[in-house]
Amino acid sequence: MTSAKTVLGIGGSLRDGSQSERALRIALDSAAEQGVNTELIPGPELVLPFYDTAAGERDERATRLIESIRRADGLIVVSPGYHGALSGLVKNALDYVEDLREDTRPYLDGRPVGLAAVAFGWQAAVTTLDQLRTITHALRGWPTPLGGSINSAETKFDESGGASDDKSVRTLRLIGRQVAEFTLSR
């Protein structure tokens, strides 16, 4: 008998219900439809002290993030693109993965990681996705074959879990499905 698998979603911006958070929710919902449990840590919950390897203690939010990542069988990370790069909020959260370096399963070792970037323009969306892939590789994670670059100048996400562009929704749903399927196959 296998225990339930969990996919953790991390991302968004400080604005509640941001475009990137809505994109993340679409991917997580698709993962849940495949039979995994999901957990979400949205942007407002990623307001953490700057990551410091020398700090001996972590605040409550950082501890929750670290423990959630530690338990996760797969992850989905969605970042807004600011000035051609991922947000400092998401980058700082990913820096906390360093706290897993001594674990039996260090960093994101062997875990599938779905990635998407939402930015006002194609250049920032594409470069942000590339940076997320590079970070995932450095943390020993397995980026899904499909990543999402979404131009929020052309695509608007709504509160009901949809978007003005069906292709963006299909991409995000496929990312969620790929993470769940890989997670369930292990």
UniProtKB/TrEMBL annotation:
Gene3D superfamilies named among the record's database cross-references:
3.40.50.360
**Keywords from the named record:** Oxidoreductase
UniProt cross-references to InterPro entries, sorted A to Z: Flavoprotein-like_sf, FMN_Rdtase-like_dom, NAD(P)H-dep_reductase
According to the UniProt record, one GO cellular component term is: cytosol
Q: Which major enzyme category is it?
A: oxidoreductase
Q: Which GO terms describe its molecular function?
A: FMN binding; oxidoreductase activity
Which is a Pfam family this sequence falls into?
A: FMN_red
| UniProt-listed Enzyme Commission number(s) | 1.-.-.-
NADPH-dependent FMN reductase-like domain spans which residues?
Answer: 7-145
Q: Highest taxon of the source?
A: Bacteria
Name the PANTHER family on file. CHROMATE REDUCTASE (PTHR30543), NAD(P)H-DEPENDENT FMN REDUCTASE LOT6 (PTHR30543:SF21)
What's the protein name?
Answer: NAD(P)H-dependent oxidoreductase
Taxonomic lineage: Bacteria, Bacillati, Actinomycetota, Actinomycetes, Pseudonocardiales
